[in-house]
Amino acid sequence: MPRSTPDLIKLATRAPGNLHKEATLRELKRIKQELIELQDRLYAENRRSVLVVLQGMDASGKDGLIRRVFSGINPQGVRVHSFKEPTKLELAHDFLWRVHQQVPPRGMLHVFNRSHYEDVLITRVAGLIPAEEAHRRFTAINAFEKLLQQAGTTVLKCYLHVSEEEQRKRLEERVTDAAKQWKYEAGDEEKARQWPAYRTVYEDVFEHCSPASCPWHIVPADQNWYKAYEVARLLRDALVAMNPQYPSNKTERPK
Amino acid sequence: MPRSTPDLIKLATRAPGNLHKEATLRELKRIKQELIELQDRLYAENRRSVLVVLQGMDASGKDGLIRRVFSGINPQGVRVHSFKEPTKLELAHDFLWRVHQQVPPRGMLHVFNRSHYEDVLITRVAGLIPAEEAHRRFTAINAFEKLLQQAGTTVLKCYLHVSEEEQRKRLEERVTDAAKQWKYEAGDEEKARQWPAYRTVYEDVFEHCSPASCPWHIVPADQNWYKAYEVARLLRDALVAMNPQYPSNKTERPK
């Protein structure tokens, strides 16, 4: 676990300058072909699983990223779960209860659009829990993710890092751009003012919930093409490391 | 509801003779683009939903069809559920209990790979329930599907109609073809002998669970390219009929 607090302000929100958009998109296309084959092997092997945890501030582009990276992979082996405001039933349980129900069984690749981390992010920005409770939850989260890993799940955590300026621009477009108006929600103006508050609580997460065995990846997110490429690449590398294999046969064959 | 029993033996298992494979695959590609846009509108509209029920005998190609038709659609709005042998907990409830939990909420497109129909198919072939119980279940199924439709769900039921010869060939390939051996399961030889038994119980389903408002579509399934085209076309037509719309905005915008 890193000993010092990462400083989000200092981390890139854009692609490295030497990267060309068109070439990167071609590379993304190639990586997606690899992902299709690797997921097929993961599913056929039916022994291990993958959980991609996506976090990011409002308008960091989580929905678009899911479409760009995971479209084309066999949907039978992929499941996306979007965590919304908890229901009364969910709130009547511990904060990991509803999350635990959605973790991937053997062979599956699950994607969390938001996750258990909201319980140490929005809850803090909204002043619903004190810092001590957040720190108790960090411990619980680390233990939970370790449990999943020990059961054969590769956990890939990606933070879509959008700059304050880009976020403001995108939230404004929801009002001014006819094609984006349906995304507008009451409170979007308020969200645009909360970037610094979210920065603080995210930094606390990266300090306390990023053990070497399960680190956070900070993905520059001001450009949609780059973040899709980056997340696809991270997922490809994780799957290559797992190296799933087609089983020779499911049960014994006749002689 | 049709008054006479449909005779599966008389229904085509191959594409019409005037259809060319290459041209049909090009058309499938075009239809998939339409599906991507229509699903996006369904999701944004967030008012209605779609349930695709896929049934077919073993080796009729359900898994491959799901990959061919639904890959490429935004996975955030699509969920595939494969119904396997029921667990003890599931068996401790009525047969629709586990199925009801997986129906699509507003905005979503769900695909059932096998479904509640197994409870009036394999159960009968295996001699687990008498004909009277099957007929009680037909009534329950019709009421259940009507409930879903009244809640805004379009239910599209497709039977992948594979011929006895083609099924035998495919099951044999699981033994002889190295790339398909992992699909082999004990009992595949037995399955190849059960085509006539399944034919009888499927015909009973088509007679009793195919009201005009929720008919079964019998899809010729001996050729993978044709069945994918046919199911994609049926789904496209269903979505066009629903004509989902992007909402102008989610909540009230500032003036």
Structure notes:
Two copies of one chain form a homodimer. Chain A is α/β, with parallel strands linked by helices. Chain A has one domain: Rossmann fold. Helix content of chain A is 46%, strand content 13%. Chain A has ten helices and five strands; from the N terminus they run αβαβααβααβαααβα. Chain A has helices at residues 21-45, 62-70, 88-91, 97-100, 122-125, 131-150, 164-176, 188-193, 195-208, 224-242; strands at residues 49-56, 78-82, 109-113, 153-161, 216-220. A five-stranded parallel beta sheet of chain A has the order 2-3-1-4-5, sandwiched between helices. In chain A, helix 2 (62-70) crosses helix 10 (224-242). The longest helix of chain A has 25 residues, at 21-45. The termini of chain A are far apart. The interface between A and B is medium-sized, with 34 and 34 residues. Chains A, B: Keywords: Coiled coil, Kinase, Transferase. Chains A, B: This is Polyphosphate:AMP phosphotransferase. Chains A, B: Pfam families: PPK2. Chains A, B: Residues 19-245 form the Polyphosphate kinase-2-related domain. Chains A, B: GO terms for molecular function: polyphosphate kinase activity.
